[in-house]
Design brief:
Elements: E1 9-11, H1 13-17, E2 26-29, E3 34-37, E4 47-48, H2 52-66, E5 72-79, E6 82-89, E7 96-98, E8 104-107, E9 113-116, E10 127-132, E11 137-140, E12 147-148, E13 152-153, E14 155-158, E15 163-168, E16 173-175
Length: 176
Amino acid sequence: MINTQVQFRRGTNAQNGAFAGASGEITVDTTYNRISVHDGNGTLGGFTGALLNDLNSVSGALQSQIGSSTTISGGVFQSGQFNQYFSLLPSISNSILTLSNSPLYINTGLSAGLWKLPLISTCTGRVYQIKNRGFSLLLSGTNNDYIFSQYPSINFTVNSGDAYQVINDGYYWNIC
């Protein structure tokens, strides 16, 4: 095991909400045990990531209420003190979706889909929560932007049942 310890800036939820970090900087909310990624543009609190439990609870509730062929964009759910905007999207065979500003995307489709991530250079610090409750889903970088999981690639497969956080650090889309 490596003997190097890495720590990020940390503070309470209130302290994090009043902080605007540098581009790609990560901070830790010690109240709700969440991380935020900052964009360097003065956005207070940065972009806070959801926990896997948040994704599972909201996607399961929405799925049971509206079915697998409905698209919802711009909805809001609340988990504890955490408000999150989301898009619930069915994949349509051979369809391509380019992700936009909604930080939570849930695939509910019964056929394979391709979701393109925006250009890295246009949205440093952006964090997406991806949950696949449908069929296979392929994430793809735009203009050969790399997605980094275990190694850099321009594509990443999100298998049915998987959930990931996708973070733009200014160089790669990082899969967590």
